[in-house]
TrEMBL record:
Keywords: Hydrolase, Signal. Residues 1-22 form the signal peptide. PANTHER family: GLYCOSIDASE C21B10.07-RELATED, GLYCOSYL HYDROLASE-RELATED. This is Glycoside hydrolase family 16 protein. Pfam families: GH16_XgeA. GO terms for biological process: glucan catabolic process. Residues 14-300 form the GH16 domain. The lineage of its organism: Eukaryota, Fungi, Dikarya, Basidiomycota, Agaricomycotina. It comes from the Eukaryota. One of its GO terms (molecular function) is hydrolase activity, hydrolyzing O-glycosyl compounds.
Length: 313
């Protein structure tokens, strides 16, 4: 199962020991509740994607209630109370980045709510230096459609047209801003439908042979026990066909990806959500920028709630 997407040679040259161990990992970091504040730094930076957003630092996020936690939840949100004058850069929101970096690993995000609404562009992703070296795990805009998983690299990284995955590939050239995206088939993988289902789990496995992403809805029948209960070890070999698969057949993953940070952010408008063609096609009113500035109450559901982020290495 593990090598279904690789060439036959990989199977022939792998020892039985390699095969048995291929998908097994040990618990690294189990991040729950207030531990998110220890594991992540707030990035109060100008938005690289030109959104109508003002990423605040940790003390501002705490004092304005844009970050909150309980013993078993962690919430990040955009401001939903302020009408913005035209000279403000944008609506207060948050962008956090892990203090640690990871190379080959598995990251499991147990998400109970994701930001929704016109103008929102939520994302859970990993990136490193040099740009572009990025894995988008959860991403989409304006509550529209299903989740898109993408990888972005420098030149010389393409994906085969036929892959073992349940999602649907867009571009197969991973170079640059566009990257190679895979649209998930599950309607409840993104937006209001994700929240109505009680959320679910996203998992990303990165090896030098492939990058895989899985999605399981909260009450889906096939959630692996080791995903559900975050035990001391996992075996991705039992997880079934991934939603998105990026094999190394025409892409040297070991050289295109280095040490990656985990990033979680809630962008508003910007190059994707705020593209007027995309924004209007999502059924959203007026322009993204004016909607975000003038309609604070529309952002009451613009929040992420995480039950946990668990890293296995
Ligand atoms: C956080 O941001 C606020 C508002 O810009 C600023 O006044 C404050 O000094 C910042 N705090 C830190 C610790 O940087
Ligand atoms: C906006 O989105 C449309 C549709 O995806 C695309 O064709 C166009 O190039 C985008 N415009 C910009 C400025 O990125």
């Amino acid at each position: 199962m593990k090598f279904a997407v690789c060439s036959l040679a990989v199977v022939l040259y792998s020892s039985f020991a390699d095969l048995a161990l291929a998908g097994t990992y040990l618990l690294g970091d189990n991040v729950v509740g207030s531990r998110f504040l220890d594991a992540f730094s707030f990035q109060a930076i100008g938005d690289p994607t030109y959104g109508t957003v003002n990423y605040v630092n940790e003390s501002t996020a705490v004092s304005k209630g844009l970050v909150a936690y309980t013993s078993n939840s962690f919430t990040l949100r955009a401001d939903d109370t302020t009408r913005l004058p035209g000279n403000c850069p944008g609506r207060d929101s948050v962008r956090i980045r892990s203090k640690k970096t990871y190379t080959t690993h598995v990251a499991i995000f147990d998400i109970t709510h994701m930001p929704t609404g016109c103008g929102t562009w939520p994302a859970v992703w990993e990136n490193g230096d040099p740009w572009p070296s990025k894995i988008d795990i959860v991403e989409g805009v304006n509550s529209h459609g299903t989740n898109q998983v993408s990888i972005h690299t420098s030149g010389g990284c393409t994906m085969p047209s036929s892959r073992s995955m349940t999602g649907t590939a867009g571009s197969n050239n991973c170079e640059g801003i566009t990257g190679c995206g895979v649209i998930l088939q599950e309607q409840n993988s993104f937006g209001p439908a994700f929240n109505d289902a009680g959320g679910g789990w996203y998992a990303m496995e990165r090896t030098n042979n492939f990058i895989n992403v899985w999605f399981w809805a909260r009450n889906g029948g096939s959630v692996p026990a080791d995903v559900k209960y975050s035990g001391s070890n996992i075996d991705t070999g039992n997880w079934g066909t991934p939603s998105a698969n990026f094999p190394n057949t025409d892409c040297n993953l070991a050289t295109h990806f280095g040490a990656n940070y985990v990033v979680i952010n809630i962008d508003l408008c910007g190059t994707w959500a705020g593209n007027q063609t995309v924004y209007a096609a999502s059924g959203c009113p007026s322009t993204c920028d004016s909607f975000v500035r003038g309609t604070p109450a529309a952002f009451q559901n613009a929040y992420f709630e995480f039950a946990s982020m668990v890293i296995y290495e």
